[in-house]
What does this fold into?
Amino acid sequence: MQNKGITIEAVAAVLNIHRNSASNKISGETSFTVDEAFKLKASLFPEFDADYLFSDEKDSGLTMEPKQPTA
It folds into this structure.
């Protein structure tokens, strides 16, 4: 998120939730709903695959790179 300049406040605005709730979801303290996940993907991260956006980056060893187009 930081690389794209997206703030917690921006996430909260897209989801229409309080900033603290957005922070809890981003940190993994609480979960995103399926609807919230798709709203975030469509509004803030259209270039990323939803599975990637909501995977556990620590376990996968992935970094936040856009999905590459397939030929």
